[in-house]
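Researcher: Here's my situation. A collaborator sent me these components and asked whether they could plausibly form a single complex. I don't have experimental data yet, so a predicted model of the whole assembly would be a useful starting point for our discussion.
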Amino acid sequence: MFRDAGHLPKLRDTRPDPTQLPRQRRGTTPQMHGRYPDYDVLENARHWDETTREVVLARVNEVPPVRFFAPEEAEVLRLFLDVALAQDAEPRVPVLEMVDARLFAGETDGYRYDDMPEDGETWRRLARQLRADGFDRLADREEYVRALHDGEHAWEGLDAERAWSVVMRYAVSAFYSHPWAWNEIGFGGPAYPRGYMRMGVGDHRGREPHEGAEAFERDPVQDS
Amino acid sequence: VKGSRPPRDNRSAFLLDVHRRGIPGAARMRRYEDGDEVDLVIVGAGAGGGTLAQRLARKGWRIVILESGPFWDPDRDWVSDEAGQHKLYWTAPRVIGGGDPVELGKNNSGHGVGGSMIHYAGYAPRFHPSDFATKTRDGVGADWPVSYEELRPHYERVERELPVAGQDWPWGDPHAYPHAAHPISGAAEQARRGALAAGVDMRIGPVAIPNGTFGNRPHCIYRGFCLQGCKVNAKASPFVTHLPDAIEHGVEVRADSHAVRIGFAGGRCTGVTYMRDGRERFQRAAAVCVSGYSIESPRLLLNSDGLANGADQVGRYLMVQGATQVAARFPDALRQYKGPPPEISSEQFYETDESRGFARGFSIQTVGPLPIDWAQHVLADGHWGHALREYMRDYNHWTTLGLLCELLPLAENRVSLAEEKDAHGMPVARFDYTQCDNDRANIAYGTKVLERIWEAAGAQDTLTIGRYAHLVGGCRMGFSPEDSVVDRDHRAWGIPNLFVCDGSVMPTQGAANPALTIMALASRLAERLSAGR
């Protein structure tokens, strides 16, 4: 089913449904679904250089404390991020904590639109708006986030498109820096100093033995 | 014979250590006192400053390079990881504005010894001869006070030093490369098939990664992290191609030293004021060369009481390239994270073709986004939540082509000083940018060509991100003080010992990645300066 592209959002009429995905059998993926059920990038960690290994493993083993956001901001932003990144079940990549750590350390991208505040302030305004709108009590949070994305919601006076791009840039940078997300998408990880040899097309010519094989179908026994 | 000719007058590749990535000579680097008047102080250890220093040091010049960022030890400081290499970028505060603001951050300026070539992709194309006279030929942009012919020997010399690998090049001034083309990945092969089917000629390269023996630099391991800094020492940057030789010949690369002001008295520069360890210091020098790239170079001049800005030219004509990327989906896995992102490119659409309805053109190149960049791509196409996750899970089935559209130099696109101050109390740069109609037409046409290529390749789905890449201009070279900041020898009009040597001097930007041209310009400047002494 994944060789043809009928599952892709622009080619289907219905919402993508992760319950129809293979379940992860090895290692961890966010929500334990993915396309590489027997692939765990962390099993390659002993082949990485020590400096890289320390940084990447810390992302998995050490969830930073929340220090930038106030508790009530963190609470509502966590709910927002769960919807924006479709993390609707455990295990979750701790995106809120990772974003908080960056903002606390001042590790921004540096630039700021002339009509926008500092990135941290954009996040705080999002939190205020979500609290004012009772986001935590909404029955349909996905509809709210859609409206936010489409610019139909107020965003404390900010340019909605720019505010969305600031917030989501931090969100995806955190999520897709996490090895669990690499397991889900079949990314090879650091690959230093080992590098790659098989660079061709398809599973035979393009996959190293230590890279995960892709599941093109659900397993009717194990995935139901 | 390909791959066998060592570069002339540059032993950098032999001064490195096969088993370590740092510059061995850094430990016994020559040091100068602040009060010691050196021959030249250069601000910025990147493509311009690094190359200039290497050349002049061999002629006996006593040189200090002030670099705002750290002196890297890649073994210790760099990780083979996308998020973990954020430190390579210039992330001090800047303000962006205008009708089509340019997002900065990881996309353009570098921080640290080696400059932005530490995180550039590695493409090293030459400019075309037409780039040096777009005003005369096409009625747009500006003519350069330097010709292609003057730059050609320096292109050839720098191509041997990096060295550049690629197929024989049919476009612009046809030429061959010192190293043979690298093998290409399945992702690039798919793009190549589509291009051929759509009548678009593509060639492998030109990539600044040796393919074969080259001093003590190891061969590329195809891990795909070129944009995160090469931990292998395979990809060329001044860090491995010019600074080892510069240091061997007595250049001091003073890292963690942020220039804040150029000293000026009696019509001449006297040195540079810089911050180091929280203290303000002053390096005396007989001449000053600003090599901080297109935003920081103008900012430094503006922060130095508007030095060289008598005609209000500093910061103007700043350019970026339109760098829209279109990704395509195929049934078989392509794993686009493998291999260097720069693989194949086309300059078939580089020159003006009046039938297209706009002046100048664009290049097409492969790119290989890693997961975070891929997520930005999906996000830009309008997806979030479950749709974002679905496209991300499909990552290995996608391959991506990008444009480099030549956008025209406009006086209003410029760096100025914002009211906001940085950590040193100096006003930060404000960068305003707005496209003109020719720019929009160019990007729209180029995007259609990419779509045509993917259609011809039989893509199942496409995703598009509109973006910019590269910076040039801001202190352009020209024919008179009224139309430019520096003359054809990079000398600030009216100030005999102030030079600018980086991408900011370029009057137009072509549809080529700027690194090689910045180095070639520095190489030419060094020749002019040492001849004049």
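Model: Some features of this prediction you could bring to your collaborator: Chain B has a mean pLDDT of 96. Chain B touches chain A through 74 residues (CB under 8 Å).
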